[in-house]
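note to self: the first set is below, dont mix up w the second
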Amino acid sequence: MAMRSVGIRVLVAQLFVSIASRATANDWPALRGPGGLGVSLEKSLPTKWSATGNIAWKADLPGAGVSSPIVVGDRIFVTCFSGFGMPGQRGGNMSDLVRHVACLDRKSGKLLWTKEVPSKLPEQVGMREDHGYASSTPAADSERVYAFFGVSGVFAFDHAGKQLWHADVGQRLNPNKWGSAAALGLYGDLVLVNASSESDSLIALNKKTGKEVWRTPGIRESWHMPVAASVDGKVEIIIAILGKVFGVDPSNGEKLWSCNTDIGWYMVPCPVVDGGIVFCLGGRDGTVGMAVRAGGRGDVTRTHRLWTSKKGSNVTSPVFHDGHLYWMNDQRGVAYCAEAKSGRVVYEERIPGASQTYASPILADGKIYYTDRSGKTFIVAARPSFELLGQNSLGNRLMVNASPTVADGRLLMRVDRHLYCIGEAR
């Protein structure tokens, strides 16, 4: 670990950009849920299930995808694609590619409506790792649902499925064929779009009209949902790119501060904020983790950076709990716990049977749920001494990239073209 001395830590309440207006305590309105923390306050979530046991319902989706489901009120929203580039299928015509925004009933899984969204062509060909064309998790508030489909743009619908607006955020295709996967964030009257792949930009759109409010340039090699920090009563939008993390003014998009991360890779995991401290993971080797105190101005590397770490993850985001960070390495099947104030690794435990992991964990009722790409979920005690509490699977030959969602005491698990509701039927 490398650590820098800092002044008194600013103790303020964290504020995350995914908080949706007037969302209820039981809603999961964006990627990683209320506040973007991956943390639920619900109790008694299921701890045992199988492909046929403790499944409330299983719903067929109108297409494939790796985006996570979100929940507002009695409705579930999820994005899909069909017609071209489906996993396991070769050939076809790109002109047949269609995106879908689907709405399901929260209690029964019944498909209430699906809206087809035309694709702007040409699109990416030969997408790596079957990421496909519906990888960005949508966001929703009490009035609208917002969906992002890369070069095809951002779309807003009301909860009945009526399209309200469409916005173009860039037309560049990623040369490395990663596609577009940055989840949307909501802050105040803004929809925040990490359009790094499409236009090297962080873009704020008006929630009601879709009109561009501001644009921050120089956002490169970044695939995570923007988050926010509150310091001394002022909010900053946080976004990390290759080698740097920025604090951005939410009123005009101006970069307020920057900090070198020493992470020499693209940034996929969502930063986590607690008490005005920003924690970032990213990359496969070298420096792959760091912490910085928000609220500075200019280059704050020497004054506000708290520590860097050689332990991290290239894909999965961490969760924060009682002064510690918890995460699963995306390649090694290793679970980590680190002390948040210093970055010191408390434990590093290989979980037997765990494989490649892209889903980010959730924390609820003192338990952390890690789901790997084969659909196995490992439940670990949320404390700085490792204890594996359980292991569950939805079956064989699955491909799970989406993160789990908590919905009224049950878990929603997106498995490519299906959505599982895990828990007792009601």
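second set (the one i keep forgetting abt)
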Amino acid sequence: MRVLFASNHAYLPHHKGGSEVSTHDLCLTLQERGVAVGVMSALLPRASLAVHRQIPLLLQRRDGFVRDDFLGYPVFRCNQPSHAVRMVVESFRPGVVVLQAGRPLALVDRFTSLGVPCAIYLRDALFDNLGGPVVERDGVRYITTSRDLARRFAEAFGIHPPSIPPIVRPERYRVESSRKSVTFVCPFPVKGVDIALALAARRPDIPFVFAESWQMHPVRRAILNARTRGKANIIHHRPIDDMRNVYRETRIVLMPSRWVEGWGRVVSEVQVSGIPVLGSRIGGIPESMGPGGILVDPDAGVDQWERSLAQMWDDPVEYERLAERARLHADRAEFAPAAIMDRLLAVLSELAGTRT
């Protein structure tokens, strides 16, 4: 079987988010199963030098793409993905396509018209931004990352998709942490940056690390820099390729999200090292966290967040209890990469058998 992951977003290393990192882990794990994998993505105007050398060829053809293989599998970076579908299909010859992120339904008809079935892997609850009508038909399947997201999708459209959490390869994240800091990943408003800033102000004795993930506009970064300037207990990191460099000093991960998280990948990344999480009771976070942390209602005030942080930071017995629960939760059999891959391959194999 040949599997193509397709998106209207840019891909690693030019764009790094949960969807892109999860796709990379999926590709690596599928390759170990003998499955040929490829990725089709948008090409950012400012790309790496390796891709820059091919951009003039791309711009001469509005529907073209450039290909690189430095991630260990082919990545087709397209000036306009919707215009390049036929060319990528002819080049890679996928048996099934997994569409995700960036209005995926805008691409589904272009693939199915070529006889290639599609799985739409939903990673958030922004159902109004899928790029087309949600319909149930032959050659199209939906997958979600969490039971909460599957429930929301079923309530909205009457379709009951399976939930398959993102794969987290433990060897890419496991660390022996010095447990010195609170880490907050992706400092955006919807991720609860105001709560993180308020907690850092109330607890100047605790070092906080703000680590970027999503691509941040320079104006938004300037605003964040202004809000953290002079705060001696806040370190602000630009995007980091290897998050172990952050997790090696993490004692607690803070995840005060205000929007419906499809899963909470950062939770799973740190729990393999026994790092507990203080997070919002919203979306897929409770499922990804399990007993390995403390949940706070997203509309709770900063006082409640501060009390929960103190419970984790100031009480060593409580901290060790939560850290051990986080470690055990990460080690559960159904979350092992092999188990997740079995579930995903079952869906993709069934879809690939519908190809016309």
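remember for set 2: The longest helix spans residues 337-352.
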